[in-house]
C-alpha cells in the first residue's frame, strides 16, 4: 500500500502559523486515513518554529531558489527563518524515506508546502506561481507532490499503483448455476 506524507494541518492538527488547522473533509481523504496511508508531518514545526508564529513568505523566488541559496524565507517583521524552513524540509524528506512515502499531499499556498502557488514575499496577500521549500526538496528527491486541490489526480495515480485485488472464492459474489 502506498503511503502519503501529508501536511499535519490537513489532518486537523492546529499547527499553522496562526494556530489553526485546515482539515480536509473529502471522502477520498477520509478513505486514505481509514486505510492507514497518511503520514502527518509539519515541516515548519519540525524545523523548530513555534505555534503560533509570525507569518512567513519566501522573498526573492520560490522554494527552489531557497534550496539554491538565492532566496530567503522571512517573517512579516523581517526575521530570517530560512534555516528553520530548510531543516523542516529535510526532516520531511527523512520521514518520507523512513515510511516509504513516494507521494506527498501538502497545503497549497504555504511557504513550505505550496505546490502550485506561494505568497510573493510582500505580505500583501498576493500569490504567485511557485513551490514551497519542502515541496521543492521532495520533488528534487523524486517524491511527487499534490495539493489538497489535487485529490482526484492523486487517487487516480494510487488506483494504478494499488489496484484492488481480485476477490477470493470466499469473497466473490455467488453466481447462479448454469445448466
How many H/I helical runs?
Answer: 6
Level of helix content?
A: 25-40%
How many domain modules?
A: 1
Terminus-to-terminus distance: 41 Å
Q: Which word captures the global form?
A: globular
Sheet with most strands: strand arrangement = 2-1-5-8
Radius of gyration, in Å, reads: 19 Å
Beta content: 15-25%
Mean pLDDT: 93
Low-confidence stretches: 174-179
Structural class: alpha/beta
Number of strands: 8
Order of helices and strands: EHEHEHEHEEEHEH
Characterize the largest beta sheet: strand count, sense, and whether it forms a barrel. Answer: 4 strands, parallel
Fold and architecture overview:
The protein is of the alpha/beta class and 179 residues long. It has one domain. Helices cover 31% and strands 17% of the residues. The protein has helices at 27-35, 43-46, 63-67, 82-99, 133-140, 151-161; strands at residues 4-7, 38-41, 56-59, 72-75, 103-106, 117-119, 127-129, 144-147. Strands 2-1-5-8 form a four-stranded parallel sheet, with helices on both faces. Strands 3-4 form a two-stranded antiparallel sheet. Helix 4 (82-99) packs across helix 5 (133-140). The longest helix has 18 residues, at 82-99. Mean pLDDT is 93; it is low at 174-179.
Please supply descriptive tags for the structure shown above.
179 residues; alpha/beta; four-stranded parallel sheet; two-stranded antiparallel sheet; 6 helices; disordered C terminus
Q: Helix and strand layout, with pairings?
A:
Layout: E1 4-7, H1 27-35, E2 38-41, H2 43-46, E3 56-59, H3 63-67, E4 72-75, H4 82-99, E5 103-106, E6 117-119, E7 127-129, H5 133-140, E8 144-147, H6 151-161
Parallel strand pairs: 1-2, 1-5, 5-8
Antiparallel strand pairs: 3-4, 6-7
Helix pairs in contact: 4-5
Amino acid at each position: 500500500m502506498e503511503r502519503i506524507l501529508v501536511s499535519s494541518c490537513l489532518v486537523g492538527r492546529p499547527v499553522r502559523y496562526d494556530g489553526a488547522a485546515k482539515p480536509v473533509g473529502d471522502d477520498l481523504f477520509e478513505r486514505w486515513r481509514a486505510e492507514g496511508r497518511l503520514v502527518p508531518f509539519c515541516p515548519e514545526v519540525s524545523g523548530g518554529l513555534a505555534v503560533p508564529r509570525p507569518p512567513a513568505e519566501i522573498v526573492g523566488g520560490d522554494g527552489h531558489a531557497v534550496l539554491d541559496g538565492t532566496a530567503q524565507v522571512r517573517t512579516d517583521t523581517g526575521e530570517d527563518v530560512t534555516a528553520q524552513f530548510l531543516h523542516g524540509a529535510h526532516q520531511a524528506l527523512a520521514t518520507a524515506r523512513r515510511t516509504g512515502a513516494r507521494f506527498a499531499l501538502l497545503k497549497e499556498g504555504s511557504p513550505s508546502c505550496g505546490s502550485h502557488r506561494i505568497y510573493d514575499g510582500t505580505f500583501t496577500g498576493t500569490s504567485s506561481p511557485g513551490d514551497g521549500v519542502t515541496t521543492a526538496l521532495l520533488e528534487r528527491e523524486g517524491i511527487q507532490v499534490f495539493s489538497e486541490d489535487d485529490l482526484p489526480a492523486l487517487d487516480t495515480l494510487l488506483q494504478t499503483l494499488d489496484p484492488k485485488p481480485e476477490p477470493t472464492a470466499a469473497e466473490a459474489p455467488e453466481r447462479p448455476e448454469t445448466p
